[in-house]
Design a protein that fits this description.
Distance between the termini: 17 Å
CATH class of the largest domain: Alpha Beta
Radius of gyration: 24 Å
Bound molecules: NADP nicotinamide-adenine-dinucleotide phosphate
Number of strands: 20
Structural class: alpha/beta
CATH architecture of the largest domain: 3-Layer(bba) Sandwich
Helix content: 25-40%
Amino acid sequence: MTVAAETADLPATDFDAIVVGAGFGGMYMLYRLREQGMRVRVLEAGSSVGGTWFWNRYPGARVDTETMFYSYQFSDELQQEWDWSERYPSRDELWAYARHVADRFDLWPDMQFDTRVAAATWDEDSLSWTVETESGDRLSSRYVVMATGCLSSFNVPKFPGLESFAGDVYHTARWPEDGVDFTGRRVAVIGTGSSGVQTIPVVAEQAAHLTVFQRTPNYVIPAHNRPLDPDEVAKIRANYPALRAQARQTFSGNIFELGGPSALAVSEEERNAEYERRWETGGLAFMAAYADFMTSEAANETASEFVRGKIREIVKDPETAELLCPRQLFMCKRLCVGTDYYETYNRDNVDLIDVNASPIEEIVPEGIRAGGKVYEIDALVLATGFDAMTGALNRIDICGVGGSSLRDLWADGPRAYLGLMVANFPNLFTITGPGSPSVLTNMIPSIEQHVDWVADCLAHMDAQGAARIEPEASAQDGWVAHVNEVADLSMRSSCESWYLGSNIEGKTRVFMPYIGGFPAYVRKCEEIVDAGYAGFDMR
Ligand code: NAP
């Protein structure tokens, strides 16, 4: 029992903390709170750990952040002993890593799987939460930590007739555990975001025929994935603390080689040489070529045009190449990283349909009717993304002070203090919630920063004999205003994307992540703690 509970002489709860989700956030949260002597239960809808890397097992799924840094750093032993095989490991390897972490830190006994949380209700008298599962179990706790993930509530667009389709329908985020054999089958993929970009080349190799339905072409930088070189690994391991510290000082928590301040400050020749070098290196570091991609349209256009030039070079059919050329600002939607993505459209068994010219009218038993024509298929792959950042939280019936509903309060867009807590919802924390840098950064370091903040906060409360914490409405308003203000400074908030919620029908458009950068955000969190948890009401 926590000191807080003893001092306040509150009724006993089943647990000190309930953590929802056993992805990288939930696992580390369990580890930290248990180290602090708390009784913790993790509730997870899936049947194993890993979160994103449990669910997203579509062919070609792999991380697109350099893995030596897309990994936990809380335990040096862990980062020294785990062997990553590739620059961008596959989903299977990431899932194996998650299971290894659960083994190594003995996390399994405190995690409960195949358990989806349906509701969480705050009781002001007992200062506790009651968490109800879909199977009707009710568990009480002092604290709830929502480690439900930013991209976990998957999106199935309302295609008329979808249920009438005679073949198989798969969503990239809910792939069958035993895999799917597309050999000899006619397949359609709808969606060309990161998931579609990864799966299309792999499905194309297997299927008899693949038709890709594209709404918005994306910028896809080649991954140039490769096995990790043992010398490179040894060098990183020997310098891990310094490299991790260096990463923490960067905007996105990634060590990207930073280019110049402006794409327009150099000659066209120099600029293109820089783009060429980054294209050959591969990966998301292309974004760091120049610092003004998100503040100058002219600078942005130079990168866009470079990628369009590459597409025209790679894709042999000029009409297909033009269809694949993105027109929105570079980096405005999440940049994609792929392997043989554009090359795939040179295959005889692959067709590209632009749904702007040929809108998807309905799904019929034999396939997809678009632009008045039926495309006959045996299997349909939906790579149609997620109800990002708020979707997983809004699925749960979360009721705070006076029965206020989080879903209702967030109907016009999420409001949270630091993306960590919400006014009116005491003792409820969100890991990488809206209003924190989260999806604009390397996720695992951002997760660790949040988990550490929450664990330290609870230790502090324990030491103070406090049993209730909630953000002040004025502090939350101030933070939300700041999040919006910095979003407006960046062109990233100007185009249709899941960052804004514009991919979900009826969702209010608000740029949800904090775009002020990881270092500025961490500093803010630290200042708030140093000022005695300024903006929080702790009793
Ligand atoms: P996404 O980026 O939202 O892409 C969904 C795709 O489906 C888009 O092309 C979208 O078109 C299309 N779409 C949605 N509804 C449609 C409709 N009604 N008709 C036609 N097309 C429709 O989702 P995602 O690819 O799953 O990726 C989401 C995020 O997850 C990524 O941005 C990334 O952050 C993360 N992710 C990371 C990795 C990795 O690390 N390797 C892999 C996969 C995902 P519009 O663009 O026009 O909306």
